[in-house]
Specification:
Order of helices and strands of chain A: EHHEHEHEHEEEHEHEEHHHHHEEHEEHH
CATH superfamily of the largest domain in chain A: Type I PLP-dependent aspartate aminotransferase-like (Major domain)
Number of domains of chain A: 2
Largest sheet of chain A: 7 strands, mixed
Helix content of chain A: 40-55%
Largest interface: A-B, 56 and 57 residues
Strand content of chain A: 15-25%
CATH architecture of the largest domain in chain A: 3-Layer(aba) Sandwich
Distance between the termini of chain A: 29 Å
Oligomer: homodimer
CATH topology of the largest domain in chain A: Aspartate Aminotransferase, domain 2
Chain lengths: 383, 383
Amino acid sequence: MKPRLLTPGPTPTPEETLLELARPVTFHRSSQFRAIIKEVTADLQYIFCTTQPVLTITASGTGAMEAAIANTVPVGGKAICLISGRWGERWRNICKAFGVTVVEVKVPYGESVPPEALAAALKEHPDAAIVTATHSETATGARNDIKGFAAITQASSALLIVDGISGLGVMECRMDDWGVDVVVTGSQKALMLPPGLAFISLSPRAWTRVDSLYQGPSTPRTFYFDLRKYRDNLAGNDTPFTPANTLVRALRLSLKRLRDEGIENCWKRHARMARAARAAAGPLGLELLAKDPADGLTVYKLPETVDGVAILGVLEKEYGIRVAGGQDTLKGKIIRLAHMGYIDYFEVLAAVSALEMVLPKFGHAVQPGTAVSASQRAFSEGA
Amino acid sequence: MKPRLLTPGPTPTPEETLLELARPVTFHRSSQFRAIIKEVTADLQYIFCTTQPVLTITASGTGAMEAAIANTVPVGGKAICLISGRWGERWRNICKAFGVTVVEVKVPYGESVPPEALAAALKEHPDAAIVTATHSETATGARNDIKGFAAITQASSALLIVDGISGLGVMECRMDDWGVDVVVTGSQKALMLPPGLAFISLSPRAWTRVDSLYQGPSTPRTFYFDLRKYRDNLAGNDTPFTPANTLVRALRLSLKRLRDEGIENCWKRHARMARAARAAAGPLGLELLAKDPADGLTVYKLPETVDGVAILGVLEKEYGIRVAGGQDTLKGKIIRLAHMGYIDYFEVLAAVSALEMVLPKFGHAVQPGTAVSASQRAFSEGA
């Protein structure tokens, strides 16, 4: 069987993008590269649904998350962290590393944080400088209600900072219209690139916070992630440090693809694939971990009788299907099947087909053909 | 003419590496990728001349520089910054961003910092926590005496932190033997890759400092650059954050190339090309900016009558030769010709040939054939 990458990051890269990455390295301080920066920035603004600059940082997604925290909260400031899994915990851990006081609003793995819980936390902590949230909790497959969160933070002085790493370009997120203050994403999800670039955009009131922080007594302790440098350089279509410029060149192609499709169609495409992946759960005899599932990945809970680590190996070795398992306390207990970026429905169908064949080998009976059939029906009906 | 990239970063990437970059994206949490991490780490140790772990960070070189500062000096600590140009200033600026007290030991652009100046500064500031240095000052083409610096810092409690971004793999730097405490480099110079990865290695006494800092009252304010995470993950051939894994795969090929050549031969190759580039200066009627020039690039001073920005455009447009000009106060006054990584002597010769033809157009007479001839003689004699 052919190898098929269906992990929730990195996701596959289109062939034309791979070929672009094989083109010779070019110099980044040139009019040609400035033209590329200008073009990709405009296209990123389209994807972020913002008129604000979208900054490109050479780093993993966590680097942009660190930039968000370091630039918006002083040491001793307060953050309300909305936590529904490992990636929500990532925000908390970054805050703690920066000496930020954390108020945790936590739900069990698989659940989403209700906006009412944020409202209550903000009422109790009106001095919170920021609220952190995770659009798509990649650890559990849960979706969080960013629009609902933003409606609450907009009426407060707290900035809403959103991890859109596996959410942006997958599910509706209208930064300007909804009033989200900071959105972060990475290159290796819906943007269909190898890992290596991270992106961040800030609302006008977030920029006001950033600028005042640097002028205040508790100046941010960061140099590489000083967002003012990225903003000021971007005004001249330039970057403060040597960027991963071949990835930026490749980004141009991914963004063209998304522009051509249209961002609303892109959201619809992911939603449709997600419904088709979820529809397979019942016939496979598996439950979904997430109560309100995200559209970029589907997380199936495995019965306790199934060895959740061994099954990943069999899926890859016998059928070429590379999906992800669980992390930390979820290790061995779930299967995470991605359907975002350059993954299409027929690959989701291949994964469902492989699961139908492999689960019985682990003592979990499946009625042959039922899962692919259910998935197919859900996909057809979504047309 | 064919385009030729002769800038001091990024440098050209070998064709086989480009093709590797065009191969499909793979998952980074896998036994296959762990085997690659293990292999590249061993090869990086060979290049760094160290038995200590070499950590791979997804960032520009400045990211690893920030990691070096953030992890070794507390807020209010003291750094002696040896400055011979823009990149020495970069260390100072990072220190300042992290609230570190800076003692500058500065020489005019083009000069190198004499080790005696470091000895005097350390005598005056025995409480200095670190000393920062720049092996190859890419802004001026000057070489600094890292071995001389290390002989001094070894007898003190200050850690010697070296920017080897355009030095490592180009000029002799024996981290363990010389007693250098921290060495930083980037992917886009002697390692012959596109930009996007940075590398850092620390001596045992530097690690002791790092671990004690995190346990102390002034814990480092960083999460993404927390070097303990990289070290601890590397023990299992893993990374703390999603790495730019296609670049790591490509790195493997570059390192094989350097291993096959042998690091001493690699230093000799660069030294020989550097002599050939310098030998062209006299016949071109140009002075070298650096008194003790580095081997990765040659910096020619332009006469005041020559438009140093316009000449870059003509070199590229008419001859396909992409060299770099000066930065900041040196803008328009110098030409920086790189000869490191995947640049060979015949490309240096092409650049010298183009300069012979272009300089007269800017009113600077050159006796035809003299520069290429002198360069050729110097190269032949270096065999």
